[in-house]
Amino acid sequence: MLSRAKVFLLHEVNEHLGRWEPLAMKMAEQGYVVYAVDFYNHGRSSGTPSGYMEHWKLLELQVKLFLENEILTHADLNQQQHLEEEEDESDTSSSSDVYSGKESQQWKLWKLSTLQEMSPYTTLVTEEWEAKLASLQRTSYPIVLGGYGFGATMALLLSLQYQEVIHSTIALAPYVHIPTSFPSTTSSMLLSQQQLVKSINYFFPMLEVVSMNTLPQTHDTQQRKIYNQDSLICKTKLRCNTLYQILDAAKRISQLLMETKLWCPHALLLHGVEDVCSPADASRYTTHLLTDKNSHSFTLQIYPDMYHDILHEINSQKPIEDVMLWLAKHIR
Questions:
Q1: Three-state DSSP state, 178
Q2: Is residue 224 within 8 Å of residue 256, measured between CB atoms?
Q3: What's the CATH fold of domain 6-330?
Q4: Residue of 55, 10, 39, 50 lying closest to 241 (CA atoms)
Q5: Distances in Å between the alpha carbon of 53 and those of 23, 45, 59, 116, 212?
Q6: Which DSSP symbol is given to 310?
């Protein structure tokens, strides 16, 4: 089967790439080549599985390197698949880390150790690499960048920076700063205390402030049990600096969306009305900004009676079907 597109998926803070399985497997069945990556200090990536985020730009770099490896290294997707199939026949061990245990040629679950020795003082991205990616025209096959939670914020940031590379963006419950001028009807326990968090972080960056697993993520009791038993999900409280980095990235994407004059990628935003981590108004506000950017196409899907983790909700089939229908419409 000829691949329809390459899809890159970015997970939520404290989680891991395997959480994408319900959607990723469906995508693979429909002919999409799907990749994911564990952020540094998450899942099985390098660092400690603490979910700690030193700076969001370091994770942004990890994703850029991840994309570079797949977009710039392989000019022809089908040739790459052919080579991968030959490798699989000659060597039964795979460098890809399949968390689910389900073999799939098109569901590549990656872990990267790129940031193992990086520090805040390391040059984040070389000028040579920036010029290389910025000058790259869209490849013969579409590149889709998807994210959930903090991963969705990263997806929006990167799609905005590299609009000639990214064909489509899928953002599930992104963290986006909402100005007071926007008529907001929902609130967030994570995003509402930005100034307080910034002040505390200056003195106590390692202070434990809030636990993601104590916030309502899904109405599905079975999925809550799976979440709590998943050893790759960090159950400790978010450090103050981690929360501050989420807030800072949310503010940055909000600023960039206001400043930019054009948004080229197709965009799909999905959000649960009852989300207390990132309010549904974050996606409403993003859509409001995209309206003025001559966007090729953007769609907003709001789901009543859903919390933050819409892929593991009671009626999770609905958002999954919506994503697949949207992809079928925009990926020819």
A1: coil
A2: no
A3: Rossmann fold (3.40.50)
A4: 55
A5: 26, 13, 8, 13, 14
A6: G
Q: List, for residues 51-101, the tens digit of each pLDDT value.
A: 889 889 888 888 887 777 666 554 444 444 433 444 443 333 333 333 333
Model pTM score:
0.83
pLDDT tens per residue, range 108-122: 444 333 333 333 333
Report the residue count for the chain: 332
- Determine the number of helices (DSSP H) and then strands (DSSP E) in the chain: 10, 9
Distance of CA 77 to the CA centre of its chain: 22
Tokens of residue 218, six digits? 């899904």
CA atoms of 291 and 286, how far apart (whole Å): 9
Residue 70: DSSP 8-state:
I
Instruction: Locate the domains of the chain by residue range.
Output: 6-330
Non-local CB neighbours of 42 within 8 Å, separated by 6+ positions: 11, 13, 14, 15, 16, 49, 51, 234
d(CA 135, CA 86): 32
pLDDT in the model for residue 304: 95
